[in-house]
Amino acid sequence: MLGTSVIISVHHISFENSLIILVLSNLVGYCGYLAHGWMGDRIGRRNVIGLGWMLGGLAFAGMLYGPSNIAMVVGLYSLGLFFLIGPYSAALFFISESFPTSIRATGGAIIHAMGPLGAVVAGFGATQVLSAGSDWQTAALYFGALPCFLSGALMFAARHVRPETVQ
Fold it and tell me: What is the pTM of this model?
């Protein structure tokens, strides 16, 4: 979902302030990238990705349905990006742990191709929800926060590599 559209429509924050929120939140997301890379070495990359995306989905849902005061919106949106963007640092190495070297590039390409496909599905789905007369809050929940949470839960079906076994 386009963060500024959701923030403007759901919380009635000005476009200018939504851009400031977007910049600040992405800085927090960058910190998440560093933190999740470190955590992946401690508790396992699969666990970090799964927990991160689930917590991100919860933070985004909280932002959608929480109070419209600026501190709450900035805090929950930033937290959502921290847990959405951060796990990608662990994903870089998780992919190499998940596939044998003979198919690692193909496996990684298939995984990365899911992102744009998800964006198309989310865009189509949000358009359908909005065209049916619903609002941005519902569209962002169904095609933003909920898929983020479910993606994290699905990660726990993947193979786990214990960090202490990696050399």
Answer: 0.90
Where do the domains of the chain lie, and which CATH numbers do they carry? 3-165 (1.20.1250.20)
Q: Which residue has the tokens 């742990």?
A: 97
Letter for the amino acid at 121?
V
Residue 22 CB contacts under 8 Å (≥ 6 apart), including other chains: 3, 4, 7
Runs of H (alpha helix) within 86-165: 87-98, 104-131, 136-140, 146-155
Question: Which pair of structure tokens corresponds to residue 153?
Answer: 């839960």
Distance CA 98, CA 90 (A): 12
Question: Is residue 59 a contact partner of residue 53, using CB atoms and an 8 Å limit?
Answer: no
- For residues 155 and 148, what is the distance between their CA atoms, to the nearest angstrom? 11
Read off the pLDDT of residues 84-119 as tens digits, 9 standing for 90 and up: 999 999 988 888 888 888 898 898 898 889 889 999
